[in-house]
Amino acid sequence: MKKAMIQYPGLAGKIVFNTGAASGIGLAMAHAFASQGASLMLLDIDEASLLKAKAVLEEAYPTVRVEIFVGSITDPKALDAAAEQTIKTFGRLDVLLNNAGISMNKPALDITPDEWRRAIDIDLSGIFFCCQAAARRMIHNGGGVILATASMWGLVSSARRSAYCAAKAGVVSLCKSLAVEWAEHHIRVNAICPGYIQTALVSDLVSRGVLDEQALHARTPLGRMGTPEEVAHTALYLASDLAGFITGHAMVIDGGWTADGY
Ligand SMILES: NC(=O)c1ccc[n+]([C@@H]2O[C@H](COP(=O)([O-])OP(=O)(O)OC[C@H]3O[C@@H](n4cnc5c(N)ncnc54)[C@H](O)[C@@H]3O)[C@@H](O)[C@H]2O)c1
User: Fold this and answer.
1) What's the domain count of the chain?
2) Could you tell me if residue 123 is inside a domain?
3) What is the pTM of this model?
4) What pLDDT digit, counting tens, does each position of 69-104 carry?
5) Does 7 map to a domain?
6) Does the active-site annotation cover 61?
7) DSSP strand E in 30-165: where?
8) Does 23 sit in the ligand 1 pocket, CB within 6 Å?
């Protein structure tokens, strides 16, 4: 994403903690928030891609400070350390982009206990631990914004996705619960629910024959996949002052997939 086409109110100067930021939707979000003049703390388990993302962002947005933290969202101690490093570096933490996640497409009868636990650990528990680590700091700021990248599979379900659907439905419910609980701290919490988006996660499933790209296009009323930049723009809006009265919401960005019950 190049320079901002639109300036969203309330984002310049904000400190953004972005997980899964080395690739796909998280990386597009990093570009989008940098384009608004926000500073970035990027977390991912993939150190090489994280370093590359930092270099590209610093070149594209020379006035924006970009810091990185290598760690897993399944590790509450690492998340606490990352949030603390954000405070030490930037003095505050305003926005959490709770985005890291993995796919899990497998028939329910074939999922091993380790595979089930890994999907829930990363796609649900990791999201909760990030919320805790960030909100503990946001409370000291007098508020903040948390956005979780859930999925349309958190709102509707499908065969061979039981762990993923359960985790993402959990994320949608978690966002609603935390939105209510933390409203008194002026922390807004919302879920973003993308349909199929062109990222490495989907390319990998297509290349392994798990997903059929043409069938996905045909099933989507708008006839294509979404782009990471389109999801990033949704995050800009929800994090901005324009969305100041939106909390506990699950916003779908799926080209009409979930609207089509046929
Ligand atoms: N691409 C889609 O079609 C789609 C649709 C709906 C929801 N989502 C969700 O969007 C989010 C981002 O997906 P994407 O498509 O950009 O995938 P991606 O694979 O391109 O990026 C995911 C990033 O998360 C990182 N990551 C994975 N496990 C981690 C962990 N334990 N700790 C820290 N970082 C970790 C990876 O290293 C990677 O950089 C995920 O939560 C995914 O479930 C994606």
Assistant:
1) 1
2) yes
3) 0.98
4) 999 999 999 999 999 999 999 999 999 999 999 999
5) no
6) no
7) 39-44, 66-70, 95-98, 144-149
8) yes
